[in-house]
Amino acid sequence: MAAADKPHPPPQPAYHATPGSILHADRGFYDGISRAERVPIFSFTLPVRSGRAWKVPSGHIVRISTPEGPQVGDLNIWNLDNPRERFWAARTRQLHASHVSTYDRLWSCLPYLRPMVTIIDDSLSDYGVDRYGGRCHDLLGTRCDPYVNTMLTGDSYDFHCHSNLTRAVIPYGLTEFDVHDVLNVFQVTGLNADGKYFMEASPAKKGDYIEFFAEQSLLMALSTCPGGDLSTWGWGEGGAGEEGEKKSMLDCCRPLKVDVFSLADQSVLEGWTRIEPPTYRGRHGMTIPEGEIRDTSNAR
Ligand SMILES: [Zn+2]
C-alpha cells in the first residue's frame, strides 16, 4: 500500500491560535459595531471598468455594495501613514480561509502582520459552497492585468484591474509597484479536481454588500473588473454566452458603490485599541557589525 493510500485522520488547519488571540475577532464586539448608529461621511459610485482610491480614518466603517446587480471588485489596502504596510492576501488565506466573510480579518504584510480591517457584515455569507466547490469573496486569485493578457493572447487592453488600481493610487503618491494581490469581492472561485483555478458568475444581486471595520487609518483602492460579473469571462473583448450566443462582456459590467461611515456613539468602541505588530525583535539569525572592524594589535 502506498503511503498516500494509508488511512489517516483528515489534516487539520495549519494555523491555530491560542484562546483570546487576535486571529479571532471578538464577535460580540464587532456585532455591536455593525448594529451601532452610523453617520455617513462620504460615498461614491465607481463606474464600470474604472478605479478609485480613498482614505479611511481608523475606527470607521467601509461598505462596498452592488447597487445595480452583480459585479466583481478588486480591492487593495495600505496603511495610510506607511504604504509599505499593505494587505497580504496569501497569509490571510492561510490564517482564515480561501474565501472570507464576517469576522475574518484582512492582514498586513511582514514585518507588520496585523489586521488592517475586520469584516463586520456580508450579505452573501450564506453562499457557502456551491455544487462546483465555488465560494464567494475570493483570495485564491489575483487581479486581472494587461501583461498576462498580452502573454496569452497578444491582445493589449488598458483597463484591467491592475491598471485601474495603478491609475487610482497615482494621486496618493503611489505607483504600479504598490498595487498588490487583491481581495476579489463578490467573486466566486474555487479549485477543480485537477487543482485548477476556476471562476463563476457573481451571485450578487442589487443591494448586496460587504462591510469592513478599519483597524488602522487606511488608503483603500477598488477596481470595477472589466470582466463585470464574470458571466462571459474570456480573454479579450467579449466572450461566448449561454449556448453559443455572443454576449458582450461590457453588458455584464455594472458599477460598485462605496460608503464610509463613522460611528455616532464612540462608546461602542470602548476597549478597542490599535493592534501593534508582533514583538519579534530578532535579526533573522544575522550578526551585524555596528561599523568598521579595526585591527588594533599594532596600535601605538
Ligand atoms: Zn479584473
UniProtKB/TrEMBL annotation:
Domain DUF1989: start-end pairs: 45-219
Domain of life of the native organism: Eukaryota
InterPro entries for this protein: DUF1989 (IPR018959)
Stretches the record annotates as Disordered: 1-20
PANTHER family to which the protein is assigned, alphabetical: RE64534P
Protein name: DUF1989 domain-containing protein
